Amino acid sequence: MSKFDPIRPFYDSEVNEGIRSVLHHPMMKALMNFTFPDVEESVWKEQLLKTHSIRDFQVNFIYQSVQKVLQRSSEGLTTSGFEKLEKNTSYLFISNHRDIILDTSLLNVSLYDHGLVMTASAIGDNLVKKDFLLKLSRLNRNFLVLRGLPPRELLQSSKLMSEYIGQLLLRENRSVWIAQREGRTKDGNDATHQGVLKMLAMGSDEENVMDYFKKIKIVPVSISYEYDPTDALKMPQLMAEANNEIYIKEKNEDFITLLSGIMGQKKRIHIHVGDALHKEIDEIKRKQDNSNRQIQCLAQVIDDSILSTYRLWPTNFIAYDILHKTNKHSHLYTENEKSLFERRLELKIDNTNQVMVDSFLAMYSNPVSNKLNYHDAL
Hints:
Layout: H1 12-22, H2 26-35, H3 41-49, H4 54-73, E1 74-80, E2 92-95, H5 102-113, E3 119-124, H6 131-139, E4 142-145, H7 151-170, E5 175-179, H8 194-201, H9 209-215, E6 218-225, H10 235-242, H11 253-263, E7 267-273, H12 279-287, H13 291-309, H14 314-323, H15 335-348, H16 354-372
Parallel strand pairs: 1-7, 2-5, 2-6, 3-4, 3-5
Antiparallel strand pairs: 6-7
Helix pairs in contact: 1-6, 2-4, 4-5, 9-12, 10-16, 12-13, 14-16
């Protein structure tokens, strides 16, 4: 047994057996009928039974599923920055996090389209409690982030994950996707949690952790959706936080959010990959000799990249203007776009609850406020 067995995806040698174990599951049938609506069940089953590697499963099935999702629930995906990445090279993609499944799926579609190394991607074990979802995630090269552990076990789990990420990047030449913080950003304020960087640093055998961070080639990623299909679903948690209450998830809440994120309307989507942080890491190492301070500075550099390259949409500017009672950005959207957004607000949110209305608007407008820190005029 490998010490990584509790968290790793399937090995290629296990893929066919994994597929056979879920082949007749109703959710597999639903996924395949969605992806290949004009194909007989016997045909896609036969193709699945011939699949013996994660790459084949991703390219022949998951890639096609994501294309169908884009076709059904968006006005298309655009990308920038991918041309700067080197082929046959592994990177650690540290990304802002909006959607449970799509963020990493869309990145992998873009990497594949550009002929680049696809990622192994971190996923919380709370999202794959159902056996089918766990197996599907392992077939899609996800590795598990173990949640809800007591402090000592959490430390051991973090060390194991750090070692595994290091092995993927440095020994297997496999890129890795990880969110900049635990859980999705609910309020539109994207910020890198230093704990994520400290976890990654546990796998370092370098005297100075900055040398390790340079070696694993960190690339910040910003992903933005014109409409967040789970915007209203995020409200109960934001309301609890506004009232200083502990938020307890409903049963199946993660699963409902997962499906809503995939199938809900997103309109336009954009992914930008930044430059690998080589010069910036050298600069941090030169200026700072305290490791905690180095990690603070690195988190700031990642934030600067993500926030400054985040693609803003009319929905962001509309929400900002409504929330701040201004028409400062009215040249960046049409009256029709504004009325559609206001209609969404009416349908999804209790308009008698001003705190809820303001929280909904802030979710969309905070990226504009953050961008204003980098550009005085928008």
